[in-house]
Amino acid sequence: MLKAGHSSIAVTLPKPWAEAMNLRPGDLIVFDQNDDGTLYLKPAPLPGAVAEVVPFLVQARSFDTPGVLERLVVGAYRVGHDSIEIRTDVPLAPDRLEELQETARGLLGVSIVAQEPTRVVLQNFIDPSKYGLPQLVQRMKMILVAFLEEMEEVVQRKTRSRRMNALEEEANKVLALLVRQLFLASRDWSLARRIGSPDPRQLLEWRVVVHALEELADLYGGSLASLNEEAPTLSATTARGLRAFLPEVKAELKTVVDALMHPSLDRACEAYNTSARLAGHVATPGERRNGHGHAKRPTGGLGTHLLERGAGCLSLLAEIAIDRAVASGTDTILVEAA
């Protein structure tokens, strides 16, 4: 460090780095302080400069297999590409063009901005700093709760759900954006802090949370689809068990996500204890009501089996809630001895 003037301190930058960044004396540098006191720096953008966007190029002679283009575009979106260009030697078939249009509609902020017989360009217009991780997780909670409430309606009325497809599409949109945000934040620590991860090391923890939410969305979607098929012939015993079981799952989902978003040892331990009881309860048949007053697990059908598997995901999320509360180090609790 060098003294500069009466009250300033200057530092020198490594020459190889400055040359690699094309820096010259007088250029501006942006500094960003991390929580541990270290500094993150990068060249400041020039006034009025527009960053050049290099499209992610997907090129092949032809695309014949259904689903390949969708997966490529979704994958490029999830890892953070803003512009995605599809090129072929053979003109795209109408069903492949329709696949691309459906894929664009299924991704938040994506539109087709150029379409030619052998070339299609998709562009993302989302500002990542506008979508915080906690807000997106809360949105996923609302969607998962809606899945469970729709199951309750199917069981109660014994009629098929009309919202299943819409809920699945909304879940896929939010989950894809969540994964995208994590990839972008892993490359930009300043963005990570702006969207709710002050310590970049928390991004791995967030990834586990998103993975568990993806699993829950798959399980609840599968449960609703199964109940749709069983609705007209759902047995009274299964319906009775589900009517008692679904409210417990819904309440635990809300409790666990609340514990994740607002780290507190008391709240996290409560969520963990409840999820452990729920997971153990659905794993072991017993009386209609167990010692804690919880409903006996529902029996029969793929839907109920998938719901039981979802209890394990809630347990995982509850464990992460405890980890987050311990990491925050802001409170202590008294735990009763066994």
Could you give the topology of this structure?
Layout: E1 2-4, E2 8-10, H1 15-20, E3 29-33, E4 39-43, E5 56-60, H2 68-78, E6 83-88, H3 94-105, E7 110-116, E8 119-124, H4 133-157, H5 164-187, H6 189-194, H7 202-230, H8 236-261, H9 265-283, H10 302-328
Parallel strand pairs: 5-6
Antiparallel strand pairs: 1-2, 3-4, 6-8, 7-8
> Mean pLDDT score, rounded?
84
Query: Which quaternary structure do these chains form?
Result: single chain
The percentage helix is 40-55%
The H-level CATH homologous superfamily of the largest domain, spelled out, is Phosphate transport system protein phou homolog 2, domain 2
Helix segment tally = 10
User: What is the overall shape?
Assistant: flat
Percent of sequence in beta strands? 5-15%
- Strand order in the largest sheet: 5-6-8-7
Main sheet overview? 4 strands, mixed
Q: What letter string, H or E per element, gives the SSE order?
A: EEHEEEHEHEEHHHHHHH
CATH class of the largest domain: Mainly Alpha
- The CATH topology of the largest domain is given as Methane Monooxygenase Hydroxylase, Chain G, domain 1
